[in-house]
User: Which sequence fits this backbone?
């Protein structure tokens, strides 16, 4: 019997390490055949937990997941922290993040618990100590569970950096992460016939690069639904947005990239 070569032995040990999970890591991985992200444990074993969309938020190592119901959160061990609920979940800062539902703003922590209920007009800046926001048209700071009115000039001292936004769509509503004006972009939406007949639904994500003058330099579909929904999403953006306001950094317009979500849901 021929002895295996030294290199083949090392290869076998390496493959065993992979199978035992020593080189594995908990994560959502995309499976094209099923058109979804499936959670894999530390041993590399795929679980039944899956979502059409998943991306990891650092530094908390929490997964933002999404389906036709909205966005939710899953921890690194594959435990659902928050079922898909909100129209938007931003990135975490100091263990907190902004959520949006039906155009209203709130704040949750990394356990998915509401820190600030979702009924505010806007949230401009937040930390564990204070949250600068707008409620019923008034600028306020939320401190020690109290709302304190502030003068608009105080916002200048925050040096808020603004994301690019749709022009002519009222006041900007989320200076930390940006928010497109849904009512304007969805105007005249036409659900593609093929997508409707074949059950295509989900969220198209369109990434736009907008220069300091508000001109769209590049556009890319970074999350596809198919069935004509991608093309309809681009049509809505092209026809319903007459102009874009550029992002601001330190009060100066800059080139930036934003992501515009367009959701298609069968009724």
Assistant:
């Amino acid at each position: 019997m021929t002895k295996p070569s030294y290199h083949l032995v090392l290869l076998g040990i390496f493959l065993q390490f992979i199978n035992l999970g020593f080189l594995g890591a908990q994560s959502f991985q995309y499976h094209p055949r099923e058109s979804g992200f499936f959670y894999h444990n530390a041993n590399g074993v795929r679980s039944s937990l899956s979502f059409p969309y998943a991306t990891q938020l650092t530094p908390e190592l929490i997964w933002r997941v999404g389906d036709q119901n909205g966005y939710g959160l899953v921890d690194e061990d594959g435990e659902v922290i928050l079922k898909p609920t909100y129209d938007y979940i931003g990135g975490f800062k100091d263990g907190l993040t902004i959520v949006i539902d039906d155009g209203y703003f709130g704040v949750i922590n990394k356990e998915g618990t509401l820190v600030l209920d979702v009924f505010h007009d806007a949230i401009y800046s937040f930390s564990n100590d204070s949250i600068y926001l707008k409620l019923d048209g008034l600028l306020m700071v939320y401190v020690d569970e109290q709302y304190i009115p502030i003068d608009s000039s105080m916002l200048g001292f925050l040096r808020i950096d603004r994301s690019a936004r749709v022009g002519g769509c009222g006041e900007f509503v989320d200076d930390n992460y940006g928010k497109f004006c849904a009512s304007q972009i969805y105007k005249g939406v036409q659900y593609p016939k093929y997508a409707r007949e074949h059950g295509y639904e989900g969220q198209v994500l369109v990434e736009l690069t907008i220069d300091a003058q508000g001109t769209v330099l590049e556009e890319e579909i970074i999350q596809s639904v198919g069935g004509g929904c991608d093309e309809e999403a681009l049509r809505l953006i092209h026809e319903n947005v007459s102009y874009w306001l550029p992002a601001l950094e330190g009060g100066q317009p800059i080139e930036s990239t934003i992501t515009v979500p367009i959701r298609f849901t069968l009724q």
